[in-house]
Design brief:
The chain folds into 2 domains: 2-74 and 306-339, no CATH class; 85-296, von Willebrand factor, type A domain (Rossmann fold, 3-Layer(aba) Sandwich), CATH 3.40.50. The protein is built from 10 helices and 13 strands. The protein has helices at 15-36, 42-45, 51-72, 110-124, 149-157, 171-183, 205-214, 254-264, 280-288, 307-325, and strands at residues 2-3, 75-88, 90-96, 129-135, 139-146, 190-196, 217-223, 230-231, 249-250, 268-270, 292-304, 328-331, 336-339. The two termini are 44 Å apart. Pfam families: VWA_2.
Length: 340
């Protein structure tokens, strides 16, 4: 036997306290009656009260509570084995988390817009393994390749400009991290989606794209930002300045992103301020990609047995309720049986 919700079993330790409260209630009732009349008059003052039946009702309630607790813990025994074969592609999504992604040419900022697009990509995946890379001056794997989309969404929620310690924008590092992550994964179709403003401080994005092409990795790029340029917010409500005190503007470098996509056979698109229409070409390309077997999983489905405990508990409660409605007591002075 196993329990799907074993934490419910801790409630069993509360049953002794429940029994104690019931005993205290019965004792207080008897004491109260004793203060007002002799014990021989108790049947007339409280005709519905019988110490013997009261103890039986207590036992029924405690037993029902115990059975309901065990049922709530979802006891399971017996199982059947099921096999799931997932087919899809390996997809890595690299998100720029550099300070320039705080620019507000998208509301509330570029990074929030990138996370919104990533969220919509995750919603559209079916059977594909997905991983998330955060990059700035270096790249960090936030979520390794997995078919657990809940895990990927949890990693997405943690993305912010503090996710990577090294400042700057190193697109080449993101591509290199993807190449290494793909190399440790099963063979099959490999796709990398870059969400960034394209400002490559290290200038290695195009070079690493050639390396990605050699590894048969297709890169789609999504440009986040505008070509007009925007200041970069910093702590304190001001904006980033250069050594001469002038505002530093960050612009979308779509030319670099287009080159990276072109080299690897991917697509380059500019993100809109809202909506997901720009994702259609990329999602369509992913859908058309030949799916390969990613994982063959055998797992056990255990048989739920909670009804074996819940149904008897309900029956005990019904019996207790009937005892509450129909109590037989013999009244000595009349020598008869009255029904309440």
């Amino acid at each position: 036997m196993r329990f799907a919700n074993p934490h419910f079993l801790w409630l069993l330790f509360a049953l002794p306290a429940l029994m104690g409260l019931m005993a205290l209630r019965g004792w207080r009732r008897r004491r109260l009656l004793a203060r007002f009349a002799d014990s021989s008059l108790h049947p007339y003052l409280a005709p519905n009260f019988s110490p013997h039946l009261y103890r039986i009702k207590q036992m029924l309630l405690v037993a029902a509570a115990a059975l309901l607790i065990i049922g709530g813990a979802r006891p399971q025994w017996g199982y059947e084995e099921r096999r799931i074969v997932s087919r899809g592609i390996d997809l890595l999504i690299a998100v720029d988390v550099s300070q320039s992604m705080l620019a507000q040419d998208y509301k509330p900022n570029r990074l929030a817009r990138a996370k919104d697009l990533l969220q919509n990509i995750l919603w559209e995946l079916k059977g594909d393994r997905v991983g998330i890379i955060a990059f700035a001056g270096e790249a960090v794997i936030q979520c390794p390749l997995t078919i657990d989309y809940g895990m990927a969404k949890a990693a997405l929620d943690t993305l912010d400009t503090n996710a990577v310690a090294t400042p700057g924008t190193h697109i080449g590092a993101a591509i290199d991290a993807a190449i290494r992550a793909f190399d440790t994964a099963a063979s099959g179709e490999r796709v990398l989606i870059l969400l960034t403003d394209g400002e490559d401080n290290e200038g290695q994005g195009v070079t690493m794209a050639e390396k990605a092409k050699a590894h048969k990795i297709r890169i789609h790029t999504i440009g986040i930002g505008t070509s007009e340029g925007m200041p970069i917010p910093v702590e304190g409500g001001s904006y980033k300045q250069d050594k001469e005190g002038r505002l530093v503007a960050t612009k979308l470098d779509f030319a670099t992103l287009s080159k990276i996509a072109e080299i690897t056979g991917g697509q380059a698109i500019k993100a809109n301020p809202e909506g997901i229409a720009e994702l259609v070409p990329i999602l369509s390309d992913i859908e058309k990609t030949v799916k390969t077997q990613q994982q063959d999983t055998v797992f056990r489905v255990y048989t739920e047995r909670f009804a074996w405990f819940v149904i008897p508990a309900l029956l005990l409660l019904c019996i207790e309720a009937l005892m509450q409605c129909y109590v037989r007591r013999e009244i000595p002075w009349r020598g008869s049986v009255l029904e309440q």
